[in-house]
Each structure stands twice: as structure tokens, then as C-alpha cells.
Specification:
By secondary structure, the protein is mainly beta. The chain has 2 helices and 40 strands. The strands form 7 sheets. It has a 22-stranded antiparallel barrel. Strands 3-8-9-6-7 form a 5-stranded mixed sheet. The longest helix has 20 residues.
Length: 737
């Protein structure tokens, strides 16, 4: 489908503002843009541990620090590295970041599931928190898909592994992804990147930044992407609807003459239109035959044109930074966001005349955060408070072209109010030894209504509330200027919630309690041989309590309980070597043992007994089974090379190989509802012309390895799966100034 007229108008407005910026650009007295606590990293090539004589700066602990000095398992991927690896949105980070797995589930978390180190959370559109939080310039995004826009004008991505409760606005048990966009510049700068490939793929993005007046600068960026569908319908012989997306983002920054105060007003809009289509492992006769060719689907001709997915995301934020003194800095972030998504999918994923399951999600949120940073010679304190309000509405309905068939469908509403006080103190016990203590008080209440009255059922109101004190402790030892050793213990917390789809026969609301993780980690971050070699290693163990688990009990129907405990342990390592100038070799790998320590699950339509024993009649024992999206082995290799070519310019080449062993999508650990293990090869070769553009060719998934990105058993005779992208390739040109 084409983008909405609103996106078209936004893109036209972007072009107009870009022209204005070029015409009015004048010298300014301001230094390079950026909040005092969020400077631009000195190195654009900011992959985790990438050797470089400059320091990579991140803000993972809400202040500027050298990446190798942060006692957290963190990967930072800079703008240049994103371009060279062909990463255009967050979904493509799998394989580039240790321990990160991304799956798809239309109508669940609005389309995609994020998992870090096997901590995944629930696949639910409403009523539950996220195990992995995503933040855009410090603003929490309520649903994962709200973050899956084109990464235009992005400074870097920071992926933090492990519980993030002390310093972040929404508590997460798995980790956090920080999307940091560029600040407006006091000099004119910009760029454009356009590529064309197979499946009629067009990807375009551009940005422009510059001064408007003394102490006032602005930036504008946008993107438009389009491609034909990867799927052909064997019933009609037609390729499915194309996928299109577009974004526009603008910033206006004011800074005081002495740079002690800055205020940045930012706004963004993103639109994505596509089609979500599943394949069924059963044929029409009810035989289990497998999924067959991932590029072919069988959808009846009546249902086919009605399938679609359309999402719209928008937001605005005001970020103010004040350096009150040489030791005290204060920050305020005020934000508003909305996210709407419409999904219509073929309910039985087959050529039989079908029911379309239609999901409509509306989400509105407001967030206010105030925090301070006190820096003394041997003591540092980060402190603050956060308030978060969210309104959500999710409606399930049916589109039945051939008959009057009714499913168990609700209309859900939810209102969430949460506030927190937090602090993290660091004290240098000895010149090389630092003790860190963090504490967060969290209080939240969610009121909700699950309404089945439109289908002859009940109206189920309710509320859940909770408060908790969340601690963290760590000890950091700086053996040398380039070797850091740390140990850490922290509690992760995921708030209570409600089940939005208990079924039309439900007479009481299905709520569940909070889940917690105690995470223990020890690691070393090191650089040697003049920082030509970087080696980071971390070992971790999680004790997972009251794990929130769900199971499909029928079409549009589920059950959620705090019925499980789990154990997770593993080791991850990253290595980067720069043997000669222009050549960087890097590798990362993760070993993960994530399994249910104790879980007895009622056998149902979407949860057969499988190969598991029984806890009691009708209840399967899942103890020992793997957690969702938790491959035992995963990792990747990357080669980056740049070599001058006379007076012409330079040759740039990047190749990567990534893989993951088998992971599952449910506690049953059913082979058909699993990835089966996967591997992929990506590459890009370009010629950077001196004082000119870069011409490049690219390829993704060059071996055309296909695997299930998501799978689920809905009922007997219906196992569905959604597959990863096929081999893609093309040519492009990018230019920066």
C-alpha cells in the first residue's frame, strides 16, 4: 500500500525545511550540538570493542562514559557501522549484538518480540510490560514495533544486557536498547543514501542539519522505503501486497551563550504498511506435512486482498539540560507518544475459505523524567524521579466474507500510572576500586476492562497494583587504564498485568503478579597492544522467579499465569583486532543455558503434552525445557576493510557471518514451532570517491537460508510460522557533507 497523504505532506515539509536550512545557515558560536550529558562520540565506527585510538562514548548509565569503562555488558553500534553492515532498522540487529534475538508475532507485541539472554516476556498486545525496553533519546517506547522505523540520522545504538531497573524509566528484566539520534549541528552537515535492489526494493534516507541563528540550530531527516512482497500466492498466482515505510524527524536546539543550558525540542512520525502472512504446517486434510517453500503461501482469493498491516507512530519530546555548577548537572525530559496499528491476517493460514482475524491497537503515553548528576572527586551520584502514564485500547474482531462465524473476541482498555524514585551512588574506595549501590522505588497501578459483551459474554473490570524497592550492587576494579574487572548483582522486575484474551466464557479477570530476576554477572573489559586488540568477556547467572507465562488455548484466546521458575546462565565474549591499518576483524559469541527449573502447564489446544511427562493428569511437566527465543549458541564474525585507491578515493568492504542454534517459541519445545537454527552471510563493497559520493553494492542473506522467525501451535491441526527474509541484493549511492 502507498503511504498515507500525511506522510507525503511530512516528507514535502522536510524537503522545504532542508532548503531553508541551507539558505539561512550562518556561523554560530555554539560548540558541537548535544546535551552536556550526551556528547557526540569521537568515533563513528562504534561497534562493541572495535579497536580505535579514539574513545567511544556512551550514555548507558545516564552520563557520558568511555565504552570500555562502563561495567555493563553493552554493545554500541555507530552510524557508520550501521551503514556498512546494511542495518536499516532495529529488527536487523540480530546476529550483530551478543545475546539479542528478535522474532515476529503479528498482533502480539504489535509485530515483533525482543529477547536478550533468553529473557523474552509475553507475546501480548495489551496488559503486560516489556522484558526488553526500547528508548528513543531517553524516551521509553511502549511497544517494540514503535521502535522499528528506518534508522536515519542515528548517532548510535546502545544495547544493554541484563536487568535495567535502577536508572531507566520502565523496569526491564532482559535489557534495554537506546536509540540515540544526532543533535542539530552549528555547521551545515547532511547526507543522503539511496539504493535499489531485487524485489524492486527502493531504500532512501537523508538528513540535513545546521544553524538558524546564534545559539539556535535545527535538523531534519526522513526516509522512504518500498519493496515487493517476498511471497507468491499459489491459489491466485499473485505476489502479495508490497511493503512501504516512511519516517520524518525534526529537532530544534537552543543553547545559552555559555553552553550551560540547552533545550532540544524533537518530533517524529513513522508509517509502515505491509502484509503479515503465516504458513500452516498442516494440509487441508489435516496431515502434518511441514511448511514447504517459504516463498509460497496458499490464501483463498476472497481473503487475500483483505490482509494487511498498517502502523503509525508519532511523538514529541522536550529535553532540557542545565549545568548548575562545576559538580552538578540537571536534566528534564518531557515526552508524549502515540502508536496505532491495524493487522488483518488469515486465521487458518491455508487455502480454505477463511476468517480474517483483525486486531486494532491504540496506545498513548506521557512521560516526565527529572534527574541529576553530582560529580565529586571520589564520589558520583545519579538521582531522579520518573512519572509514566499510558492509555491503551486493543480490539479483536472478525471479517468473515463467506459466513456468519463468531470467535471469542474482546475489546480491552487499560490505564497505567507509574512513578519511581531512583539513585545510583559510586564511591572510589581506593584509587582503582569503586563500589556502586543503586536503589529504585517503583509504584504503579493499572486499571483495565476486558469487554466481551459485544459477543454475548461478560464485562470484566479490574486493577492490579504493586510497589517494590529494586536494588543493585557492583564492585569495579580498574587494573590498568585499559583493563576493567567488575562483579555485579541486581534485581530485575517486570510489573503485574492482566490477560486481554481469556475467552468469551470467562467470568473473572485473569491477572498475574510481577516477575523478578536476581542477576549475577562478572566480567572483564580489556584493550592491549596500543588498543589494537579489544577483548570483553562476561559470565552471568539469573534466578528467575514467578515467571509470567502464557499459552494459546484457542483462536484469539489465551491463559497467563505465574507458574514457573527458571534458571539462566551463560558466557559471552567479543573480540576485535586491527592487525594493520584499514583492517578490522571482530567476532562475538554467546553460550546460553536457559531452561524452566519448575513449570507445570495445563495441556490445551496450543499446548500439547508433546514429549514431556505429567505433573498430574492433564498437566504437562515442562521442567528442563528451554525458554522461548534462547538459542544455546549464537554469534557472529565481521571483517571490515578500507584501502586507498590512488587519487580516486578508497575501497571499502564489509562482510559478516552470523548464526544461532535452534530456539523455540513455546514451552512445549516443539520442533515445528522453532527456528531450527539458522545462519546468514551479509556483505557490502563500496568505492568512496575523493570529495564525492560512495558507490556500493550490497547483499543480505547471501546463502538464502530460510528459517521460522516466529511459530506457534494455535490448535490441533494448525501450526503457523512466519519466515525470515530471503536473499536480497542491490546497488546504492551515499553522500555526506
Amino acid at each position: 500500500m502507498l503511504l498515507s497523504s500525511a506522510v507525503t505532506r511530512c516528507l514535502l515539509a522536510s524537503s522545504s525545511l532542508a532548503a531553508v536550512l541551507l539558505m539561512v545557515a550562518v556561523p554560530a558560536n555554539a560548540q558541537e550540538a548535544g546535551a552536556p550529558q550526551t556528547p557526540t562520540p569521537p568515533s563513528a565506527a562504534a561497534s562493541n570493542g572495535q579497536p580505535d585510538n579514539t574513545d567511544i562514548v556512551v550514555t548507558a548509565q545516564r552520563r557520558s562514559e568511555r565504552l570500555q569503562d562502563v561495567p555493563i555488558s553493552i554493545t554500541a553500534v555507530g552510524n557508520d557501522d550501521l551503514a556498512k553492515r546494511g542495518i536499516v532498522d532495529v529488527t536487523q540487529l540480530s546476529g550483530a549484538v551478543p545475546g539479542l534475538t528478535i522474532g515476529g508475532a503479528a498482533g502480539g507485541n504489535a509485530g515483533n518480540i525482543l529477547s536478550i539472554r533468553g529473557v523474552t516476556g509475553l507475546v501480548q498486545a495489551i496488559g503486560a510490560g516489556q522484558a526488553v525496553g526500547v528508548y528513543l533519546d531517553g524516551v521509553y517506547l511502549s511497544r517494540p514495533d514503535a521502535a522499528f522505523f528506518a534508522l536515519d540520522d542515528v548517532e548510535r545504538l546502545e544495547v544493554l544486557r541484563g536487568p535495567q531497573g535502577t536508572l531507566y524509566g520502565r523496569n526491564t528484566t532482559g535489557g534495554a536498547i537506546n536509540i540515540v539520534t544526532r543533535e542539530p549541528s552549528d555547521v551545515v552537515r547532511g547526507g543522503v543514501d539511496i539504493s535499489y535492489g531485487n524485489y524492486n526494493s527502493l531504500q532512501s534516507r537523508g538528513s540535513l542539519s545546521g544553524p538558524l541563528a546564534d545559539n539556535l540550530a535545527a535538523s531534519i531527516s526522513g526516509s522512504y522505503n518500498r519493496r515487493d512482497s517476498y511471497l507468491v500466492n499459489t491459489v491466485t498466482g499473485k505476489r502479495q501486497a508490497p511493503a512501504t515505510s516512511g519516517t520524518v524527524r525534526g529537532k530544534l536546539r537552543f543553547s545559552s551563550p555559555d553552553q550551560s543550558f540547552t533545550a532540544t525540542l524533537a518530533a517524529d512520525y513513522a508509517a509502515v504498511d505491509s502484509v503479515i502472512i503465516y504458513k500452516n504446517a498442516f494440509d487441508l486434510a489435516g496431515n502434518l506435512v511441514g511448511f514447504g517453500d517459504p516463498s509460497k503461501v496458499s490464501i483463498d482469493a476472497i481473503t487475500e486482498p483483505r490482509q494487511s498491516q498498517s502502523s503509525r507512530s508519532a511523538g514529541a519530546a522536550l529535553t532540557m539540560n542545565w549545568k548548575a555548577s562545576s559538580t552538578l548537572s540537571l536534566t528534564s525530559i518531557t515526552s508524549w507518544r502515540k502508536f496505532d496499528i491495524y493487522t488483518a491476517i488469515d486465521n487458518d493460514a491455508s487455502a480454505a475459505p477463511a476468517i480474517l482475524t483483525v486486531t486494532k491497537i491504540r496506545n498513548r503515553s506521557f512521560n516526565q523524567e527529572l534527574r541529576g548528576l553530582l560529580t565529586l572527586p571520589s564520589f558520583r551520584l545519579t538521582f531522579g524521579g520518573n512519572y509514566y502514564h499510558e492509555f491503551s485500547n486493543t480490539a479483536l474482531s472478525t471479517d468473515v466474507p463467506t459466513a456468519s462465524i463468531v470467535l471469542n473476541l474482546p475489546n480491552d482498555t487499560s490505564k497505567l500510572d507509574a512513578w519511581a524514585l531512583f539513585g545510583q551512588a559510586e564511591y572510589d574506595v581506593l584509587p582503582r576500586l569503586t563500589a556502586v549501590v543503586g536503589l529504585r522505588y517503583n509504584n504503579e497501578r493499572r486499571s483495565f476492562v476486558v469487554d466481551y459483551t459485544g459477543r454475548g459474554g461478560n464485562r470484566l473490570p479490574g486493577n492490579v497494583r504493586d510497589q517494590i524497592v529494586i536494588p543493585s550492587f557492583s564492585l569495579n576494579f580498574k587494573a590498568t587504564s585499559d583493563i576493567l574487572l567488575y562483579v555485579k548483582a541486581s534485581e530485575g522486575y517486570l510489573a503485574p498485568g492482566f490477560n486481554g484474551f481469556p475467552g468469551v466464557a470467562a467470568t473473572t479477570a485473569n491477572t498475574f503478579n510481577a516477575e523478578t530476576i536476581w542477576a549475577y554477572e562478572a566480567g572483564v573489559k580489556s584493550q592491549f597492544l596500543n588498543r589494537r586488540v579489544t577483548l570483553n568477556v562476561a559470565g552471568f547467572r539469573y534466578d528467575y522467579r514467578n515467571l509470567q507465562v502464557s499459552a494459546v488455548t484457542g483462536p484469539g484466546q489465551s491463559a497467563i499465569f505465574n507458574a514457573a521458575n527458571a534458571k539462566l546462565s551463560g558466557v559471552e565474549a567479543s573480540l576485535a583486532v586491527r592487525p594493520v591499518r584499514g583492517l578490522t576483524l571482530s567476532a562475538q559469541a554467546t553460550y546460553l543455558d536457559a531452561h524452566y527449573a519448575k513449570y507445570c502447564q495445563a495441556i490445551g489446544a496450543g499446548a500439547p503434552q508433546g514429549n514431556d511427562g505429567l505433573c498430574s493428569p492433564g498437566v504437562a511437566d515442562r521442567s528442563g525445557n528451554k525458554l522461548n527465543l534462547s538459542p544455546e549458541w549464537s554469534g557472529g564474525l565481521n571483517v571490515d576493510y578500507e584501502q586507498p585507491v590512488g587519487n580516486l578515493g578508497s575501497l571499502r568492504a564489509n562482510a559478516s557471518y552470523s548464526w544461532a542454534s535452534q530456539s523455540y517459541f513455546s514451552a512445549v519445545n516443539e520442533a515445528f514451532a522453532s527456528t531450527g537454527g539458522w545462519e546468514r552471510v551479509d556483505g557490502q563493497i563500496g568505492l568512496q570517491l575523493r570529495n564525492g559520493p560512495e558507490l556500493y553494492v550490497y547483499g543480505k542473506n547471501l546463502t538464502d537460508n530460510r528459517y521460522a522467525a516466529y511459530g506457534a501451535r494455535i490448535r490441533p491441526g494448525l501450526i503457523i510460522a512466519q519466515f525470515n527474509d530471503p536473499r536480497t541484493y542491490g546497488v546504492g549511492v551515499r553522500y555526506r557533507f
